[in-house]
């Protein structure tokens, strides 16, 4: 997505929504900074530029809905639980970590939220969960976040087939940021997400807007239909501002610039400067303080490792 | 009762006893009832909980994992065990990992059934023993069907583990009788271990999974009658993680592990390694391994029998071991 998709003025958000957007933004920026300083182990995938997707979806999903996230899932988690402490502790391997520091950035399970690090793997699992929900908890859905690159995996198609065939309450959210790691979508996808969904008789809904209010309004009815057993693919044409993981961005300067031009953060600051500046500094300082507090905690503990010591 | 009927009854019993139990797989619905008829009668009796799927092994295994994740009991059938390769990611990177990778234990009640092995002329891609490819995966247990282990009991043992289990079913067993042995070698049980022997001072101990047991018994008969060599057969139900402690009271002198897998990275080498570490001083030599050749499994009967380990391979190995 190199063109600017949406030049309209962004509508004004409630403070709560803006705070959540800013929390995710500053959380991700903080992670890159911590990595840069060598304070984090392994790797991470930030959702810079894509924060508005889970924020827009948040009120459309209930606490009983299952959410399956992927490798780029910090925003998904924060939008569901608003728990930067637990997530950062997980990523840093500190006490209070959501999963004891075992799963890390890509493998998180809490209540009905689960993320895994293998592309497309969650789709059949979510279909199984949706099958259970259709029978046992009518009106509840399973939501899976995938990317444009995920459409290279056969598991996606096997699961879409089942979802359509069995009329499963499955919501597939595609964050099409135009690039799979380093490979542009144009170099890895023939046809389109829309035509692939159509091939299975699954409804496809394209979102080009970055306006949270507008997105929510447009998705209310299609998401309600999912609950009644009409699976749906919602494709967000979005932009990955940052690198795939850390320091591995080889995109040409104009592609990065295009992503920046579409960034809700800059646009919202221009469109609603008073509200933005009132909250931005506060949230940034809050994330700063959280990072300091988490870094000072002792290492996380894993119950399995204590059983090895006992044996 | 034939082994296939015993397994079918076990599945009936599971669905009857557990209202959250599902059976899912390709062509499992009546009147077809599965490629090997193991699911016969289930879909008529339990409509809605027996689910026929498209030819999508990855997806059907993932769906089973999703059902298990939401608190159900899921039994997935892979039509031919060879196709479990198509579900490797769901089994090894999702289901088994999920048991522990989220920091605290997440129990999953899930069984993946794999009709396995050769001897029926199905050829290279429908005759393999895939057990060895799954050994050593944390959170994944491997069981093998046996004529000496009631399948209802084995299903219950697998589900009690609260982690995904692969159940390997040697297709040759389906048409054999439960409990069928040679009168010379009565079978008894010690916990989950089945033991067959003519006397309690055997010259050789053979450890074999369920599918190999009748071939081992046939070899034991000729060894005893023709060579006066007495063998003890040990058949564990769970192959991995192996309860090696349960084997120890019955293991000494000359020990052979016999399985149908082709050569290389076999279950037997894992068993040998475990035994060497514990009872090396009680062994007359290293544990010997009997397995099929390092080869694809041919279709034509005369070629297939050249490749697959069987009665004569075991017979030969025992004589070699005692001579050595």
Can you tell me about this structure?
The complex is a heterodimer of chains A (311) and B (324). Chain A contains 13 helices and 9 strands. Chain A has 311 residues and is of the alpha/beta class. Chain A has a single domain (15-293), classed as Rossmann fold (3-Layer(aba) Sandwich). Chain A has a 7-stranded mixed beta sheet with strand order 2-3-1-4-5-9-8, sandwiched between helices. Chain A has a two-stranded antiparallel ribbon with strand order 6-7. In chain A, helix 9 (212-227) links the parallel strand 8 and strand 9 (232-237). In chain A, helix 1 (15-36) packs across helix 12 (273-295), helix 4 (84-92) packs across helix 12 (273-295) and helix 11 packs across helix 12. Chain B is of the alpha/beta class and 324 residues long. Chain B has 2 domains: 3-175, Thiamin diphosphate (ThDP)-binding fold, Pyr/PP domains (Rossmann fold); 187-323, Rossmann fold (3-Layer(aba) Sandwich). Chain B has helices spanning 3-17, 42-45, 57-69, 88-98, 151-160, 210-227, 244-247, 267-279, 301-307, 311-323, and strands at 21-25, 50-52, 73-77, 109-116, 141-144, 165-170, 187-190, 193-197, 204-207, 231-236, 238-240, 254-262, 288-292. In chain B, strands 2-1-3-4-6-5-11 form a 7-stranded mixed beta sheet, with helices on both faces. In chain B, helix 3 (57-69) packs parallel to helix 4 (88-98) and helix 6 (210-227) crosses helix 10 (311-323). Chain B is globular, with a radius of gyration of 19 Å. The interface between A and B is large, with 39 and 34 residues.
